Every structure is written in structure tokens, then in C-alpha cells.
Amino acid sequence: MPNLSLTPLGRRFTLLAWVFVAAWTIIITVILIMRLSATRLETQDLARAQAQTLLELDQGLRLWASQHGGVYVPIDVRTPPNPYLAHIPERDITTPAGVHLTLMNPAYILRQFGQEFGARTGIENRITSLKPLNPINAPDEWERDALMQLERGARQVSGFVEKNRAPVLRMMRPMMTEEHCLKCHAFQGYQVGDGRGGVRDPDLLFRIVHPADRAQFAAHSARVRAEKLPGAIEFRILLPDQSERWIGHVCQPVFDATDKFLGTRGSNRDITERKQLEHELQTQRDFAMTVMDTMGQGLTVTDADSRFVYVNRAYAQMVGLPSEELIGKQPADATLAEDHMALARARAERHTGKTTSYETRFHRADGSIVTALITGVPRWVSGKVAGTIAVVTDLTAQKRVEEQLKFLSTHDALTGVYNRAFFETELARLGASHELPVSIIVADVDDMKINNDTRGHAAGDELLKRAARVFQAVFRASDIIARIGGDEFALILPGTDAPTAAGMITRVRENLAELNSHATDLELNLSLGVATARDSALEATFKIADARMYEDKRAHKS
């Protein structure tokens, strides 16, 4: 098959192939982005879960310290008396043994604990407030904003910030004022129940779940309780303004010592941004797939073993099989055996990084044969050729038209025999080849003009077709039968001497008589002349045969 890589047609389909390489690359990139995005979000989920656990630990330690009214520890350089607790009686005491002790309140304890813990783990924790006793516990900008959100009713505030060129999770929860907190904070105006959080509502989560997702959420909750295993679910919630947010919910069931179900302990993360990104990426992927699947040309993607991993609808229709049946098969499975070598050459060329364009033929499921132009582009994975992305153009109809045009360029459209141009070409070729002897017959349909004038041109056309059939019945496949004028035929008989040619003239007349004996409407009469060349002067031989044809015509008239 010809290589078309440098032709305009080849360049056109090479460009088209690269377009779909880009489309396929976009799809793979979209999938990779989605996977990387999912990995990033999973890492963030893990960080949030760890932070929530540490917050529970901090609040447990604070609760323990506040329930005990603080803790007395020896005074040293590291733990001097807290000047912001000077309003508390017996902030400092001395034991009977003479050891000087000072009171550490929960904030003081957590600050020291956080310093020790942070030095070991890199995790920072502390208590802050919009009205701190100790200025050292005053909030920074992020903490102040978080505290304001807690004041407005948020139950938890978290976010990722950059620190030392790395993302760091910050999380804050409210601390409610309880009776034992007033020992240190009553003078600030706090009362029991004050805090940064809201009223607890165990049914709040279910009530704000989007109505369309409530059945799914209820089933999840029932499954977690029944299976006694952690579970995860993604669902939508409705905010007070009726806007929707997506939530990533992870929880585990909690049971008491008697195996009584107490509820679930879980975390909820706003995943709206991720869902929007996934939706956008999915939309782009669907669009690219729709374009590829509805294009008029075939598109295939093969792996390193030349097995289809994707075929579009046009290619499946071209082959006559469903797309799913083609996955895993190879192009060679349907390719004609005589074209396997061209297929192998093209594959080897693509492995060098080149684009190939070539014609091939393959079987359809119904047994018919398709001629196609294959433009293949190497498919690169990790710097290596790992398959091919190919645009497949069905040339069957085009080839059929080309064959028809080729036929019409050498044949008479009315009778199906050769035309004058082909006759003259063959006459010159045989004259130059010296393949002698060569006989030439010239024939003319008698009374053609009278038939056209009295019976119409359709009758004249029918006489010409009958004349062609008479010649085809008598002469060999190697003989050249041509219509060289309106009512004139010429025949070249290679390797035919004069006696043989004369015998063929006799057979023509016999067939003509047999034909006319059965004709009820039109009678076909032919004037015939024959001459045989014993040298290469075929033009002169043709003229002699033509002259003898006219002699025969005059004899018919007389």
C-alpha cells in the first residue's frame, strides 16, 4: 500500500490524528488530576481527623485541670507564679516542708504541655480568647477570625495555611464556661454557659441533610450501627439560605460497656469545592468522549501489545461489531493477510516516534471488505511509546468512485466496451511492441441515422448495445473491442493472422443473423472491414480495415 504521509491527504489526517492525541491526553490528564485531587483531599481528611483527636485530648486535659481547680507545682525558672492569677487567693503556697508552690490554671498547663508536645511532634496547641487573662494567649489574625466565627455560632473552624512553604492545618473549637471555670474567669464577666459555641442539637445534622439524600444518610447510619464498624458517606446539606453544600462524613459507632448503642462519633468536612471540581472535570471528560464518539471517522487507541483499549462508535460501525467486543482485540485480527506486512512496518516506524499514514484493508463482520486510511500517532507513556492513537478513514466508497472514474476514462459509458482514447493507446503500444501478426476489424452500424430520426435516439442506443454484445460473444478477452465514434467500432486482435480474422468476421455475421431472427422490433446490420499487419505499421493497417468497411457498406446498399 502507498505511504501517504507526505501527500495533502496524509497531512490532513496526520493533523487530525494529533488533534485526537490531544483530546485523549486531556482525558488522561483529567483522570490524573481527579486522582491527585482525591489523594490531596484524603491527606487533608487525615490531618483533620488527627487535629480533632488532639483537640479532644486538649479539652480533656483542660477539663481535668479546671475540675480540680488548677494544679499546684513547685516554683522554678520554667514555672514562675502567673501574674494574671494574682486575684486568686492562695495562688502561691508553701508546704510544711518549705516547698514553694504556685497555681497553674488550664491555660498555663496547656501552654507548657503544648511547648513540650510541639517540641517532640511539631504540632502546636494552646488556648486563646478574645478576652485572655494573659496577653501571651491573645489570638493572632487567623485565630481572631476563627473566634469571631465561633461567637457567631460556628461549632468548629479549620483551614489550611502556608507555613515554611508547606500547608499547615489550623483548627479551633469553642470552650464552654462551666462552674469550675469561674475561679479564674468570673471577674471578666463570664457566666456559666458562656462560650464560643452553640446549643447542642443531636438531630441537627439529619435535619439539614438535603431531602433527596436523607434516605441514603439514614441507611448509612443504620448500617454503621448494625455492623458496629466505621463508615463514610458523601451527601448534601441545605444552609439557612437554602444553598447547597457537599459534606464528607466519617463516623464510628459508640457503645457502652453493656453494648448499648450511645450514638456515633464523627467528623464532617465541606467537600463542595472538590465536588464542583469533579463535576467540571467529568463534564470536560464527557464532552471529549462525546466528540470522539460522534465523529464521522474511526478513532482507536491501542496499548503496547497493540490491543484496543478504546474504539469509537464510527470504527465499531466500520468493522460491524459492538465496541465492547473489540476491546482487547488487535487491528491485525481483521486485517487482510496480504496487508499484515504493511501493518507491521507502520507499527515499527511508530516505535521510532514517527507518525504513519497508510492504506489497508480489513474484513467486516458480514464478510465484506473495507479499504481504510490509517493515520497513527505514537502514544507516549513515561517517555516510551506504549501504543498508538489512530484515525481510521473509510475509503471504500472513495475507492469505488475512483474505480468507476478509472473505468470511465478507458470505457464507453453506453456500451461498456473500450473508448477511442484507450484504442489509440493500445494501437500505439502494440505497434511499438512488434507483437505480430495483429489484425484490425472496423465495424459500422448501418442505417444509424435513419433509426435515430424515425425511432428516436433510444432505439439507436439499443442498436449500439446489441452490436457490443455481438462482439463480446465472438472475440477473446485479450482482444480489444472499442467504440471509436458515434456508430463505429474498432477491434484489435493481437496474435491473429488473416485467415483467423476472416473466420471471426464470419462468426460475427452468423451471430448477427441469429440475433435478427429473434428481433421483433429492431434489426441490427453491420458493415465490416478487416486487415492484418505483418509489420509495425498498425495505423496503416487500421486505415485499410476502415476502407474495406466502407466497401462492405456500399455493397450492402447496392
Write the layout of secondary structure elements.
Elements lengths: L7 H60 L3 E4 L17 E3 L5 E5 L1 H16 L19 H11 L5 E7 L2 E7 L9 H4 L18 H5 L5 H14 L3 E8 L5 E12 L5 E10 L1 H23 L3 E5 L5 E4 L1 H7 L3 H4 L13 H11 L5 E8 L5 E13 L2 E11 L1 H15 L7 E2 H14 L4 E8 L2 H8 L1 H18 L5 E4 L4 E7 L3 H21 L7 E8 L4 H20 L1
If you had to describe this structure to a student in words, what would you say it looks like?
It is a single chain. By secondary structure, this protein is α+β, with helices and mostly antiparallel strands. It has four domains: 29-188, no CATH class; 204-277, 2-Layer Sandwich (Beta-Lactamase); 297-397, PAS domain (Beta-Lactamase, 2-Layer Sandwich), CATH 3.30.450; 411-557, Alpha-Beta Plaits. The chain has 16 helices and 18 strands. It has helices at residues 8-67, 106-121, 141-151, 182-185, 204-208, 214-227, 272-294, 313-319, 323-326, 340-350, 396-410, 420-433, 448-455, 457-474, 498-518, 538-557, and strands at 71-74, 92-94, 100-104, 157-163, 166-172, 231-238, 244-255, 261-270, 298-302, 308-311, 356-363, 369-381, 384-394, 418-419, 438-445, 480-483, 488-494, 526-533. It has a five-stranded antiparallel beta sheet with strand order 10-9-13-12-11, sandwiched between helices. A five-stranded mixed beta sheet has the order 14-16-17-15-18, with helices on both faces. Strands 1-3-2 form a three-stranded antiparallel beta sheet. A hairpin with a 5-residue loop joins strand 2 (92-94) and strand 3. The longest helix is centred in the N-terminal third of the chain and has 60 residues, at 8-67. It is rod-shaped and about 160 Å long.
